[in-house]
Write a structure and sequence with these properties.
eight-stranded mixed β-sheet; alpha+beta; RNA Polymerase Alpha Subunit, Chain A, domain 2
Amino acid sequence: MIRNSIDILQDFLINVRIADVVDVALISVFLYLILNWLRQSASRQSIIGIVSLFALYVMARFSEMYLTELLIEGLFAVILIGIVVVFQSDIRRLFERIGNWSIFWKNSHAPFDNRTTNIITEAVAKMAENKTGALLVLKGKENIDRHIHGGIPLEGKISIPLLHSIFNPKAPGHDGAVILEGERIIRFGAHLPLSTKLEKLSGGGTRHAAALGLAEQCDALVVVVSEERGSISIARDGTLQRLESVNQLKGILNEFWETRYETKESPLTSWWQSRDLRTAAASVILAVIFWFAFAYQSETVYRTFSVPIEYRNLQSSNLVLQDSIPLEARLTLSGSDQAFRLFDQSQLVVSFNLTNYSRGEELVITESNVNLPSDLSLYEVSPRSLKVRAQRLKEYTIPIEIPTRGTLPGRLSLISIKPERDSMNVFAVDSTRQVPRSLLTEPVDLSSIEASTELPRNLVIPENIRLPDTTSRQIGVAIKVKAKEN
């Protein structure tokens, strides 16, 4: 049994690639973001229903309940559209958080000091004592502009008199919210989105619904003073909490400043110090389960392909292949099903480099001749070895002749017609008896000649003749004519 366990472990290590590790890591990060979102999502019950349906699909697939699997697969498109409709605001917020997420640096925010906390605490305490309704929004890291409507820009430094004047019941903007960024009031009289979760309001009014509505949409901290009861509440992370004392508010504000603004560590360090390891561990475990369920294949799969054979560097080796040569081979490859899914058959080729080939030598197909990916192996080849008839080429020097057609115009007579070079070095099979006595160019049409000129012409190369690699087929032909005497 121990031996079998060792074999299974070895097989697992052989089949696991670096890409698989990266794959699991990326899915773990994605699941970590999703799980954090679910913890704060206002639509948690719907998510549980979708997860249950997905679990049913997995069970149906592995239990071979084909009808159930087929039905759920048919519903996937409808479910996907439903998810987008139901969770559109949550999905948008998730992507905004990803856009704002920087791993190795901290985001810059407006400056502040402890006086800001003291000013807010003292002003809120006084308004609670006088039962003056108030709504203060402290911006977090996320952009809240799309959630805020109306209001009047201020860009003023926060102070107790300024807050009391804004929330004075006789002031025109007292029913709206004050938007704070650091120690500055950037807007007042703003309108916030109202929450539909009435069960979370605990008897609160419109201000509490507005505070909770914004806290459900972003990471801002909202302070509410009730004008009916004179109570102080805070809304954050989709929850509404009634405070027992002003000192509790001061502690929450200091914690908010430290978390959102003052931290000097990178988000990665802050995450580690927050010790949110249970969510991270759950994400990794789920990613590994998904990988084993849908990606990892332990059994070895064998597949056969017809693969083209290429012969390279024939010219540099002065070889010529004669008669019929094998152009394809049948290769049986072994590997995991996952490796075959990622494999592009069109790129597979058997390649032989004939630079140092000796006449009569057998060409053997091995893994070194096949461009296989690292996760596939060569299991069987047909044929294993190739017998190729190859002959060495010998160099010959052959004169060049220029054929003509037609005749010169009657007023002209031909003096000479010469190629730019008298002969050409060519290669031919050493034992051939068909080496031509001369190389011909394309014919020159004399009827088109009006004066002495030089024309380019291509050489006509027989099939058993090969030009050197650096030699052009085109040569110049000099034609000299003169006018006839009367």
